[in-house]
Amino acid sequence: MTERSGFGLYVHWPFCQAKCPYCDFNSHVAASVDQSRWRSAMESEIRRVGRETEGLVLDTIFFGGGTPSLMEPETVAKVIETARSVWTPSNDMEITLEANPTSVEASRFQGYSEAGVNRVSIGIQSLRDADLKRLGRLHSSQEAVAALEIARSVFDRVSFDLIYARQNQSLADWKDELSEALSLHPDHLSLYQLSIEDGTAFGDRFARGKLSGLPGEDLAADMFEATQEITSRAGLPAYEISNHAKPGQESRHNLIYWRSANWAAVGPGAHGRCTFQGSRVATAAFPAPGAWLEAVEKRGSGEATQELLSDEEAFEERVMMGLRLREGVSRSIFSPIYLSKINELVDTGLIEVSSETLRATPMGRPVLNFILRQLLA
């Protein structure tokens, strides 16, 4: 197996207290969860995947969801312990857990730290109570700030998320809210524009004309530009389209995705990518929690598909992910047939090319989808 830019483990916990209306992730509301049963299934899957990726050094673990902060600390500890026994852990392994800022979940932080978690990412989403309600969040802005303070007292590294371009939000509103967020002295911020996805409650409302006040393209673009300027001045420049960090505080696990390195994935609906002897293999688990759990227990694997990507598919994934990064992608991966397209995009000021890299310019980053369409057509 070839190792490139690190190796990580993604663990998907699919359960939430409530389904947010904008969310299109694989998340489910359950009245109760048998944590002991899930613990055993996660352990079994990690051992299975470990046999297929033997010999790698594990650099990162990321607990995503769903709401991983609904996991019992004992469950998190077992996952980490099993992963450490299956792969050789790096000396400075980054272990991230996504959390929601409700008081119940914040009280678990000490337990997660003792289990081995050393970085948390808190889904605050807004610092405005009215917008939190519209977004279907169960916490208040006051609870969010309190959870952030608790997290800082427990973990060395803390990130939080905000969503902008919300209903009836003006540019001035967003600038004020972002400045308020920066006054909380974050080391890392994930700042996402609200997107309306099919299959979500917001998607359904939008289709019926019942989601009013969404910003137009020009206002959304102004908000994106303001986000870049304000965060850069505060010392948290964007290292990826939606992610901002002080130098050295970037999410190492997410960089594995964006650099098209290797990661294993366990849990319902989890997707992995690994390169074996030059061939890129994509894995996907059964998405429904019950189906995944039954597959693990009865057939010894929760994996639904394993696909060998063609060279073209692997190349396109690498370009699509890598151009999200400020650092861009290696110029060497482009064959001469792309030269004319690259030159056209350089001439329009949307990308820049050096002897080693190709990357989107500040003018190109807001229109990355256009760049990708032109480059990969």
Over the alpha carbons, how many angstroms does the gyration radius reach?
A: 21 Å
Kindly state the number of beta strands.
17
Low-confidence stretches: none
- Alpha-carbon distance between the two ends: 31 Å
Q: Please describe the biggest sheet, giving its number of strands, its sense, and whether it closes into a barrel.
A: 9 strands, mixed
Strand percentage: 15-25%
CATH topology description of the largest domain: TIM Barrel
What is the CATH C-level name of the largest domain?
Alpha Beta
| Number of discrete helical segments | 14
In the CATH hierarchy, what is the architecture of the largest domain at level 2? Answer: Alpha-Beta Barrel
**What would the average pLDDT be, to the nearest integer?**
92
How much helix is in the residues?
Answer: 25-40%
Number of structural units classed as domains:
2
Globular, elongated, flat, extended or rod-shaped: what is the shape? globular
Tell me the strand order in the biggest sheet: 9-10-8-7-6-5-4-1-11
CATH superfamily of the largest domain: Aldolase class I
Structural class: alpha/beta
Task: Explain this structure.
This protein is an alpha/beta fold. It has two domains: 7-257, TIM Barrel (Alpha-Beta Barrel), CATH 3.20.20; 310-377, Arc Repressor Mutant, subunit A (Orthogonal Bundle). It is 39% helix and 24% strand. It is built from 14 helices and 17 strands. Strands 9-10-8-7-6-5-4-1-11 form a nine-stranded mixed beta sheet, with helices on both faces. A hairpin with a 2-residue loop joins strand 12 (271-276) and strand 13 (279-285). Helix 7 (171-182) packs parallel to helix 9 (217-233). The radius of gyration is 21 Å and the shape is globular. The model has no long low-confidence stretch (mean pLDDT 92).
